[in-house]
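Course assignment 3, question 2. Fill in each field.
Student: A.L.
Task: Predict the tertiary structure for the chain below.
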Amino acid sequence: MLVIKIGGAADIDYSNLCNDIAQLAAQGQPIVLFHGGSDGANTLSEQLGHPPRFITSPSGHTSRQTDRRTLEIFMMATALLNRQFVERLRGLGVNALGLSGIDGGLLQGTRKTNVRAVENGRVRVIRDDWTGSIDQVNRGLLQTLLSAGYLPVIAPLAVSNAGEPLNIDGDRGAASVAAALEAETLLLLTNVSGLYRKFPDESSLIEHLPRTELAQATEKLAQGRMKKKLLGAQTALDGGVRRVIIGDGRSEQPVSAALAGNGTIIE
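Answer field:
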């Protein structure tokens, strides 16, 4: 089992990704595709007059400030991207099926009652927040789809026990899915070649990272969104996934290249 997470950055060619997935699927490789949607959400937010806002937690992690209107825009943007992935894959002969974590209670989570953010050197509490963390994956639903020959394409939303939609971190979402399915590999594709020892120097790419050094790398080496990817990697490994690869989603065959050893392998 291979779970692929593709980020939502603007400079990733989704056509190359879908072509690569189609070739692997034709060879019998079971795959689940989990996608982001940050760039599309940013663009749509600007178009609708509700510009995106980002906050930094006291621990240094950056995330989208998600009020109810932002959540609605995020749902629209990720739904469009989800349908575009399904369209591309089905056009290549892949029996893709699109859904979000809300559908069928695929990803069940807890809404954060408040979020702490650092602003101008001070910590403030944000209460109108619609983000959450994943508590449970509906493994049976995914297994049913996979057994029926579908390739699930998942948008990064979860549902609370109260039925509320939640914006979730895509890397951790994919990690939770990979752990629930007991996947051999979680592949996190992004717009860089992997984890760099000296960002953004590509020659400092770390090709292999022992799990024992993951926490230190998250604290000392990771910059920006890479921190979230390493946290996702930790979630996956803790859940029993054997290896996590952080690969370059911009390459011509991003999945095949990563599985061949290009990127940062954590195991």
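Instructor remarks: The chain is about 35% helix and 25% strand. Helices lie at 14-26, 38-47, 68-91, 139-147, 170-180, 214-220, 226-238, 254-259.
Grade: pending
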